[in-house]
Amino acid sequence: MAMATSGDFKKLSDEEYNNLSSEERDVYDKQMKEREEAEQAKLPYQWRQTLQDVDVTVQLPKGTRGRDLAVTMQKRRLKAGLKGQEPIMEGELCADIRLDDSTWTVESGELLIHLEKVNQMEWWKHVLTHHPAIDTTKIQPENSKLSDLDGETRAMVEKMMFDQQQKAMGKPSSEEMNKMEMLKKFQQQHPDMDFSNAKFM
After folding, report:
1. Residues 135 and 36: beta-carbon distance below 8 Å
2. DSSP for 97-153?
3. Burial letters for 149-187: b for 16+ Cβ neighbours within 10 Å, e otherwise?
4. Neighbouring residues of 44: CB distance < 8 A, sequence distance ≥ 6
5. Residue 18 pLDDT grade (very low, low, confident, very high; cuts 50, 70, 90)
6. 195: which residues sit within 8 A by CB, 6+ positions away?
7. What is the pLDDT averaged over residues 79-107?
8. Positive or negative CA dihedral for 119, 120, 125, 129?
9. pLDDT digits (tens, 9 = 90+) for 26-80
10. Are strands 103-107 and 89-92 parallel, antiparallel or unpaired?
11. Using an 8 Å Cβ cutoff, are 176 and 183 in contact?
């Protein structure tokens, strides 16, 4: 499959992506990453996330203080900007937030917004739903953040990340791999049986 140039680049479906060779996938992933970074750079804010929370940073005019800002947080909406002016950001959030644990402050000429997620097992594609989305299957959580989780939650997160990456590459999930391994062991124990039509349920 011929890869598109930057001028006519389009996102592929899962089926189209799975039909690419490993070299074509590398090229496609690089183009997607560059496109994603360009889209995110145009936003009036920067953001980063863990599974538990989202941190948004907005550059403010020099000398701006907290009393000069109007910031409104709702369970699924966010509005922030200078009083008496058009909001810098306003819209529906990607998912619900815990209002009691979400805060904002002004520090070193920046508005820092901390959003605590309700669902702490899910990556956000964007902060506001009308803004460009990122590919959450390519997110690599920081080891230091993973180590903060308890054993059961960490194992679940690592399994989720592995399964997302396997799906993106058209490969079997961890559960499917376990079933294949069990069948392989059973075949070795029963070499006289025919498993050619075995299916995974």
Report:
1. yes
2. B-GGG-EEEEETTEEEEEEEBSSTT---S-SBTTSPPP-GGG----HHHHHTS-HHH
3. beeeeeeebeeebebbebebeeeeeeeeeebeeeeeeee
4. 58, 88, 89
5. confident
6. 183, 186, 187
7. 97
8. positive
9. 888 888 889 999 999 999 999 999 989 999 999 999 999 999 999 999 999 999 9
10. unpaired
11. no
In single-letter form, the type of residue at position 140 comes to Q
Single-letter amino acid, residue 113:
I
Q: Are 88 and 71 in contact (CB under 8 A)?
A: no
Cα-to-chain-centroid distance, residue 23:
24
Structure tokens at 157: 């997160």
Q: How many angstroms separate the CA atoms of 169 and 172, rounded?
A: 9
Q: Which residues are CB-contacts of 118 (< 8 A; sequence separation ≥ 6)?
A: 95, 96, 97, 98
Q: What is the pLDDT of residues 127-172, one digit of tens each?
A: 999 999 998 887 776 544 556 666 676 677 677 766 666 666 667 7
